[in-house]
Amino acid sequence: MASAAAAEGAAAALRSVLSRAQQAAARSGRAPESVRVVAVSKTKPVGVIRGVYDAGHRCFGENYVQELIDKAPQLPEDIEWHFIGNLQSNKAKALLAGVPNLDMVESVDDEKIANRLDRVVADLGRKPLKVLVQVNTSGEESKFGVDPSGCVGLAKHVKLSCPNLVFSGLMTIGMLDYSSTPENFKALSSCRKEVCDELGIPEEQCELSMGMSADFEQAIEMGSTNVRVGSTIFGAREYPKKN
What total of structural domains would you count in the chain? Predict the structure, then answer.
């Protein structure tokens, strides 16, 4: 069966990615467990995700609310789901109610979505939700994320004004052609230092989510603690064909 073969292929690819991530961590003088690999499964069927789960992986990421709401109930409850796409405030309740094992939202980019998530967590009576502040380090208008100059203010708002959220760090998406990737990563590291100085927390307690399939090893070498790897594990995206 094609789906079984795809699941086996994804599981093998995962093992390779985990090995490469551990080696990159070692090169930067860090322990292998200091880096989390988020297996980004958008557009991929539940059977293929299950194959990666059966290989021992538990952390998966999705970009679209409805897709995650559809998939999560069909998969084991001990998966730690990360939502990594842009989240509209009017979909926050559906996401949190529909995915009880949502572990983290990586894409908080303004006070409005932070406040909405904070209220929804309280209304649902669920445990505090871990969030990352998304920073637009490339300056591209097409990218979501707070400007680096605003990351301290937004992080402060989440930590001090959103009791049902756990400020856990920063996230960025590099440029698509990877031309300024090192600069993007350095910018996020600088933001972390500013945030930690302002909030009085050690940098080790502030995650850096940066690096995807094409550059996750470089990201880890530059301090990333959380890499979002999709196509290298699951293969090319399968978007519906437009008529």
Answer: 1
